[in-house]
Amino acid sequence: MDIELLKRSADLRSLADIRLVTLEDGPGRGQRILVARNAAGVAFEVAVDRGFDISSLSFKGTNIGWHSPAQMAFPTHDPGSEDGWGFLRNFDGFLVTCGLDHYSKPSEVDVSHYNHPHLATKKMPLHGRIAAEKARLISHGVDTETLDISCEAIVRQASVFGETLELRRKVTLPIFGSELTIEDTVTNRGFRPTEHAIMYHTNFGYPFLDDTLTIGGLPDEVTSEINSSPPRPDDDYGEKVDVVDNRVTPHQLPVLLRNPKCGIEIAMSYGQAVLPKLAVWRAYQSGVFALGVEPRTDLRPIDGALLKPSEGRSYILTFGFSRFEKQQQGRHHAR
User: Fold this and answer.
1) What GO molecular functions are on record for this protein (predicted)?
2) What's the whole-number mean pLDDT along residues 306-312?
3) Whole-number average pLDDT of the chain
């Protein structure tokens, strides 16, 4: 505990804060949001009722995360609606967790391992269901001992005669630091084995995403392909996805995203042993304009193994934010 600091700011609100609020207007009306900021210029929001995902992120006043046309819709739409494409009506924010038993396109899968009395197969919706589930908040606050901002919650995805999966998530940010950490544990709380798959759909938006942004830390051929087509809105752009498997084409972390116009660099790290694949999603269509960097597990385990009752998997992601000399109109100047 820093006594001298507490003498100047009794509860540290002059330096950092995290507050639980409820939205009162617009498409997101009624949902709980945790709003946090620190002394280093990092600010984020956690959507408590949308998978405990990070809905907004900024650094030094510059928006980093993606804000979609869906505008944080609440109540969330059923991901299974529209033939399994309902996820797209909810899709919004810096971090959207996809899982916990499926990601990718809608597909029909075998569910015999559940011993379901009525179904032999089940249709999985686009990117699973967890991002549409409400969280049970465990804690949130500013710790005067560790000088950290943190929040923690449990999000459950469950069905009678189906999966009972629990995501326990803790988000931590030092009061004076610029590294955001997400710690997850996914546990099978049922009594039958279950499939488990997770993808961290991390989305960057304007103004951090602009035509001067570059990406690094990936295999050369992927980096060259992405950086050769600078991000610019295009009415006719659909999407492009590049997938890297670290077991086939090893690459060194962190993944670096850098924008000279903003003078901001982001270093993204995660455990490649448990998240062996990474996708880069380019969706530069006008009005969408997003770049996704998506660490993921295998969709279906190579060895076919299921998550046993009470068995868990843990994941850690970190995002480091830094400033460098800003470029503007062809000239460099310090800010």
Assistant:
1) carbohydrate binding
2) 97
3) 95
Q: Got the DSSP string for 23-35? A: --SSTTTT-EEEE
How confident is the model over 55-85, as pLDDT tens digits?
Answer: 999 999 999 999 999 999 999 999 999 999 9
CA gap 181, 238 in Å, rounded: 32
CATH of the domain at 215: 2.70.98.10
255 Cβ neighbours under 8 A, 6+ residues apart: 215, 216, 217, 218, 267, 268, 269, 278, 293
Residue 4 lies in a domain: no
Is residue 155 very low, low, confident or very high in pLDDT (cuts 50, 70, 90)? very high
Q: Find all residues with CB under 8 Å of 156, minimum gap 6, and list them.
A: 133, 136, 164, 165, 166, 167, 189
pLDDT, average across residues 312-328: 92
SS3 content of the chain, % helix, strand, coil (to 5): 10, 45, 45
Domains of the chain: total: 1
Q: Is residue 7 part of a domain?
A: no
In a domain, 1, yes or no: no
Check residues 162 and 335 and name the one with the higher pLDDT. 162
Q: What is this structure's pTM?
A: 0.94
Q: Can you tell me whether residue 113 is helix, strand or coil?
A: helix
> Is 6 within a domain?
no
Per-residue pLDDT, averaged over 138-166, amounts to 97
**Phi, psi at residue 216, to the nearest 5°?**
-145, 175
